[in-house]
Amino acid sequence: MRSRGRLYVVGIGPGNLELLTLRAKRVLEESEFVLGHKTYIDRIRSIVKGKIIESGMGEEVERVKKAVKLAESHIVSLVSGGDPSIYGMASLVAEYVYSLGLNVDFEVVPGVTALCSASPLLGCAVSGDHAVVSLSDLLTPWEVVEKRLRKALEGDFVVVIYNPSSRRRVNKLLKAMEIVLEVRGNVPIGVVKNASRSGEEIFITYPRYIIENPDKIDMHTILFVSNSETVILDGKMITPRGYSRRYRW
Ligand code: SAH
Predict the structure, then answer these.
(1) I need a surface site. Which of 50, 74, 226, 248 has the fewest CB within 10 A?
(2) Which of 18, 200, 221 to mutate to test the pocket of ligand 1 (most atoms within 8 A of CB)?
(3) Which one, of 130, 100, 90, 117, lies nearest residue 197 by Cα?
(4) Final residue of a domain: which of 60, 81, 112?
C-alpha cells in the first residue's frame, strides 16, 4: 500500500530564487505535485521535478480542495508568494482542513515577505513597531480596512500597505492617501514595486503626489508610510530604533 501523503504550503518569497528558504527549495524538489497560480509557478518552475498544476486568480478554494485530495496519498506543494501566512494560502488551508476535521498532514513552509524584502531596499523603513494593512476589499469590507488604517496611523506605527491599488480599485488608494494626509500629514511614503524581481522600482514620495499620480502605484507595489520618527538620510528612508537616543556614535 502507498504511504500517506503530505501537504506543504510553501512560501516562495518575493521572486528572486536566492530568497527561497532551503526548506522551501527542498520540499519543492521532493513534491510529486506542485499547485499554484501561474505567476508563482513560473518563478519556481526550474526547480520542480513533479507534475505542475496551474490555476488562475479566484480559483483558490478549488486549488486547496484539489491539493488536499492529492495529499491523501502524495507529497504535494501548494505555492504562495512571499509568506503563506501573510495574505496567502495558509489560513485557507487551515480553515478548510480543521473545520471539516480532515485527516491531512500539512506544514506551512515560511517565506520572505514583500515587507521584509522591500523595507531594506528603501533603507530601513521598518525597524520596530509597525502595522500592516491591505487595501483589498475583496475579502474584507472597506469600512473595516479604512478603520484599521486610521487606527494604525493614529497609533504612530509605520504603516505598511499591501494591495494598494488595481485597475478596479484606484479610488480606494485615493481615499487611503486622504486618510494619511488627514491623520499624519504630507509625510514621506516609501514605494517599492516588484521588490527583488524583474521590474524593480524604488522611490520615496508623498501622499499628495500619489493622489495626483495614482498610476505610479499598481498591484505589484508595497507602500511604507512614515511614522513620527522616520527620517530621510542620504536619500534613504530610515525609521531609527532609538540607538542614537541611547548611545553616541
Ligand atoms: N504573501 C505575500 C503577500 C501577497 S498579497 C507576502 O508575504 O508578501 C499581494 C500583495 O503583496 C501585492 O499587491 C503587493 O502589495 C505585495 N507584494 C507581493 N510581492 C511583492 C513584491 N515583490 N514587491 C512589492 N510588493 C509585493
Answers:
(1) 248
(2) 221
(3) 117
(4) 112
